[in-house]
Amino acid sequence: MKLSNNQIAWRAAQDIEDGSYVNLGIGFPEKVAQFQPAGRQAIFHTENGILNFGESPAAGAEDWDLINAGKRAVTLNPGAAFFHHADSFAMVRGGHLDVAILGAYEVAENGDLANWSTGPKGVPAVGGAMDLVHGAKRVAVITDHVTKDGRPKLLERCALPLTGVGCVTRVYTSLAVIDIEGGRFVLREKLAGMSFDELQAVTGATLHVVGEVADLIVPEV
Hints:
Elements (H helix, E strand, L loop, with lengths): L4 H9 L7 E4 L18 E4 L3 E4 L22 E7 L2 H9 L5 E4 L3 E3 L4 E2 L14 H7 L2 E6 L10 E2 L14 E4 L2 E6 L2 E7 L5 H6 L5 E9 L6
Parallel strand pairs: 1-2, 1-5, 5-8, 6-9, 8-10, 12-13
Antiparallel strand pairs: 2-3, 3-4, 6-7, 10-11, 11-12
Helix pairs in contact: 2-3
């Protein structure tokens, strides 16, 4: 009883405002671009130097000179721009991105994020994430609620090396939508078939309720 990755990505996409400049992390977060609501158009940025790229091309129609930071082929929307890698990071560090949506290994209740290393045996590859989490105006995380072996990903404190400190404001998981406010997790939405106590049991920090908790309802996507 949990959301699929597509459904998590769909839910995150609903909160992106029309005309926002958005960077999506490599891998799972890239799915968010597939689910823009009708009547809204985000402007997607990739660290390797494209602004306003479009949908993935059909199989066999890829132009491998047009790739995003995850080395996936993309298309271009009208008005798309190319620029130097340094200019791209100047956009990030200069606060010109409205939203960054990233994956996570761990998120702490104070907004700390660990998403680049699983520890001493992990491959060090922080990349541009450390810039994104402090350059974007809003940082959201999409993730499964627990690890593959059932351990909570939402914790009182991160145990893994940090990507950023106090940077995450909202987490979209396979079970809930949770805001980080005042150094605590505030539950906004949860699966209707799951009780609060069941959700708390798989969360590694206290969940707080402020007002009504809505049902987390998503389509089959």
